[in-house]
Amino acid sequence: MLDYKITGGQVLDGTGAPAIRADLGITGGRIAAIGDLSRAETRTAISVEGRVVCPGFIDVHSHSDTYLLIEPSAPSKIHQGITTEIVGNCGASAAPLADPSFLPSDWQEQIYPGSWRTVMEYLQLLELAQPAPNVAALIGHGKLRSWVMGYEARPAKPDELKAMCRLLEESLEAGGWGLSSGLIYAPGKWAAREELMALAGIAARHNGIYTSHLRSEGSHLLAAIEETLAIGRASGARVEISHLKTGGREHWSLLDSGLTLIRRARAEGVAVAADRYPYVASGTDLDVVLPDWATHGGRDAILRRLKEPHIHDRLMQEIFTAGRSPNDVVIGSTGQERFRGKPLVEVARVLELNPAEAVLFLLEADQLKTSAFFMGMSEPNMWRILAEPYVMLGSDASLRSLTGPLSRDFTHPRAYGSFPRFLRGALDGKTVPLPEAVRKMTSLAADHFGLKGRGTLAVGGMADIVVFDPKTVADLATFAFPHQLARGIDWVIVNGVVTLNPQGLTGKRGGWVIRR
After folding, report:
1. What average pLDDT score do residues 8-28 get?
2. Residue 273 in 3-state DSSP?
3. Which three-class secondary structure state does DSSP give residue 67?
4. What sections of 75-118 are H helices per DSSP?
5. What are the φ and ψ backbone dihedral angles of 330, each rounded to 5 degrees?
6. How many other CB atoms sit within 10 Å of the CB of residue 295?
7. Cα distance between residue 200 and residue 238, in whole Å
8. Could you tell me if 267 and 315 lie in one domain?
9. CA–CA gap between residue 73 and residue 75 (Å, rounded)
10. Measuring CA to CA, which residue among 198, 77, 211, 45 is closest to residue 137?
């Protein structure tokens, strides 16, 4: 007797193979049968005529770490068909946590159902929350560094590196999935390559992955790619280049050389892949525009620095001298609500300031909690990157909700729309064919990150399943109105638990905290 029988759909198994018409049977959280199941008995039959049935999508670049503790139903992710999230990216994991002030500013503002310091404590709290999607947690290099040496702007001393290595070892043994770095953010940007090599080597010994927000995605993109490849070669770790992009119009031409570096490394046997979201605007904290010398010491030190007249004057001269144009910046979340979603140059006009002064005004007024969108990417480059056979999907976003505390910010639309947007692009002929698009969101991700039993529809595999309507699937979130759920994802099943049906979230959550 089957628990569920899904009938009438076109099945894409996640391998890139063409669709076949077949039924799926689910028993005990696993796929029990695929084929003609017309005679099989079942407790619940689900008819999906005209729909596509495929493996659940894997968001390999998520920032939902702490938000899953607040809203474990993960509506913005489940409505995209995401059944597994890889959290802890860009060096900014939830744990290990030396001090709550080391959390990203948007995470600091929330109220949580408990406290944690170690990875073990965080994962235990996450299990108690019973998240709707599966979750695997990377260990952020920034958290290791801040635990051992705070936000000091210098290379680690030998004893400090040893302490970071011990802490990473403990964190991986507690269930961490690998190491992530964010090399444009404090404190990661002050790490020498040798520090990253040593830590990535420990991840490799635990069969973990090394993911990296590159040290540059603009003028020094090629050097940043080469550094990450060198870390992969030296450590033996599988490597994931996070949200691969060419930022800034003057850097778009670097893409060919960047892709050549990656392809050549793969041909040499380096286990490197990449991820990308299908938008031409990035999104992060506005303080990323500050020069390195102004960002050491943590938030309180930065805010004190901004108030010093001579530093304030120097910053006005330097903020937009590193290839970033104020014309590409749009303000996201800010306590100055009239400026949400507004171009920086418009904000500057209203304030009667120049753009650099407007940045400093917002950062001081918001206590560094301003976010922004940076519009300097090429759409043709985006589709070219997404078409590379080793590039998978990552939203680069934490979950959001239409209600409650996670509905109040002005988020990037990728939080709600990344996966349906890519599906729509495949269906409309903008990128790879649909079977390949599904492979990128499923088996490619599962294989590279080592998620066994997931990513394909195969007998005996975990029943992480998505059913979508190819006629209607689409993202609805925009930069003007970001809090809008995607449409066309009709059913989402996680470990055999029906989490979403055509009426909406069922209230049942079947996700697992997946420990290495």
Report:
1. 98
2. strand
3. helix
4. 75-78, 105-108
5. -120, 135
6. 22
7. 9
8. no
9. 6
10. 211
311-340 pLDDT per residue, tens: 888 988 889 876 678 999 999 999 999 999
With contact defined as beta carbons under 8 Å apart, do 177 and 137 qualify? yes
CA 62/CA 34 separation, integer angstroms: 31
Do residues 336 and 408 both lie within one domain?
no
> What is the distance between the alpha carbons of residues 398 and 414, in angstroms, rounded to a whole number?
9
pLDDT of residue 516: 84
Which tokens hold the place of 18? 């063409």
Name the least confident of 211-220, 321-330, 422-431.
321-330
Q: If residue 78 lies in a helix (H) or strand (E), which one and from where to where?
A: helix 75-78
- 3-class secondary-structure state, position 211: strand
Task: Give dist(CA 508, CA 494) in Å, integer.
Answer: 10
What is residue 165's three-state secondary structure?
helix
Contacts of residue 41, defined as CB under 8 A and 6 or more positions apart, other chains included, come to 1, 2
Q: Are residues 294 and 388 in the same domain?
A: no
Q: Assess whether 328 and 439 both reside in one domain.
A: no
177 and 111 within one domain: yes
Q: Residue 34: beta bridge partners?
A: 24
Tell me: do 404 and 328 sit in the same domain.
no
Q: What is the pLDDT of residue 322?
A: 62
Number of domains into which the chain is organized: 2
CA neighbor of 396 nearest in space, from 89, 69, 185? 89
How many angstroms separate the CA atoms of 20 and 1, rounded?
Answer: 24
Residue span of the structural domain in which 167 resides: 57-280+376-453
Q: In the listed set 355, 372, 389, which residue is the last one of a domain according to the structure?
A: 372
DSSP, collapsed to helix, strand or coil, labels residue 425 as helix
How many angstroms separate the first and last alpha carbons of the chain?
A: 32
- For the ranges 268-277, 316-325, 358-367, 457-466, the lowest mean pLDDT is seen at 316-325
From residue 99, alpha-carbon distances to 115, 123, 173, 254, 416 in Å are 11, 17, 22, 39, 30
